[in-house]
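W.,

You were right to be curious about this one. When I first looked at the sequence I had no strong expectations either way, so I just let the prediction run and decided to look at it fresh. Below is the sequence, 425 residues in total, followed by the output.
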Amino acid sequence: MNSKKMKGMTLALLMMVAALAGCIGGDDDAEEIADVSGMDASDAGYTYASNVDNHRSLMKDLCDMKTAASSDGGYDFATAKDIYMNGKNAEKSDGSYRTLAGFASAEGKNHGYDAYYNMTGSVDAHIMAAMDGTGDFAGASDTVRYQGIAKLTVNMGMVAYTIHELNSAIAKADAGNVDNDSGAPHNWDEGWAFFHGPDEDYGCSPAKVMEKRAGDFGTTNADGVANTFAATEAAMVDGLAALQAGDSAGYTAAADTVVKNLVITYSQAVLKYASKMDNNDSGEKYQAEGYAFWKAIEALVADHTDSCYNNQTHGSAWIGAGEASNCDAFIWTQHNGQGDYMCYNTDIHIVYAEATNETICDGFASVFPGSGMPGYYADYGASSMNGVLDLTDATQLGTSYDVGPWLAGAWAHFGITAEDIGTYS
């Protein structure tokens, strides 16, 4: 699917969009919620301030969809699509059902995905391609389509909904509406419902993905809990309290922490599955998993994957959310007039370590003189990722890819360290 560059897509911008986009209506209406018998007041360490039982029930829809679409379910994509489109477990007080498709296809949701893909209902479009075997999934095997259905709905879908609810909560709080049942805390509760859901359905949630990837990369705490989950849970608990207290700095910081840890988790997932694409037996399965996990964060990180091409090393300097003029700013210089020479960028203050002499350092340019060839590539890391994870291109299989450099600019933007990512084993 085509993407469009969205410069400076930060949580603060999404908050502004939330204030303008009518974020209170539709599926967020508090009066539509019906009590669901047997649900606790808390999931994991988060206690809800309002009734979001109906939203929590959507996690069971995800579990039922995955079962139907799996090999054990006979790859029953029709049943999975019916649950997705029409609902099964989240019955509202008027007898209708809240649906996963309703959120994914809705206009004005405040997650930034539609703006990035330049498409209304972009989340739904990705999921439906897997459901129907069209678009990116045209000609795909049942195994690949299952991975798309299972992974896109749980990750791209639920992550988008989570971000939407956090931004909606911030917009309401900024407007002074902190009522537990109809204001900011209610939307914040919905965010946890979409991220974690009922404890009994936790295995179908993005929170479970945090646990799995932390296990893969050795990023758990002394109690064996994913660092990402511990940080996210604490931020959600603290953010709810901040919303109720009208503490703007507190709830904004909490939302930023949640997004940061989502980026860590899905970066780990993409790193894992891109590296496994050389598997002779399961390469296409791993490619599909990498694709689905990538779509969970592409809209959040793509703008921070710009590069400058070096015509001497034929490599790239990753400059984050840069611009063409940044590629002209590499110079061969000493630090403060002393010490070793280095290839230093005077605009964005990075060093290109691969340049061991001035000739190599001079190999950067926004446009190479005389040739007209570009040296600056916007969203190059994201474009490269989409090439590797092109499900219609079998030539990408058979190779193990290290995609870490493509994400380095995004990690710097979100304050993510190598220790946060860990090492895959």
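Here's what jumped out at me. The two ends are 32 Å apart (CA to CA). And, maybe more interesting for your project: DSSP finds 17 helices and seven strands in the chain.

Coffee later to discuss?

I.
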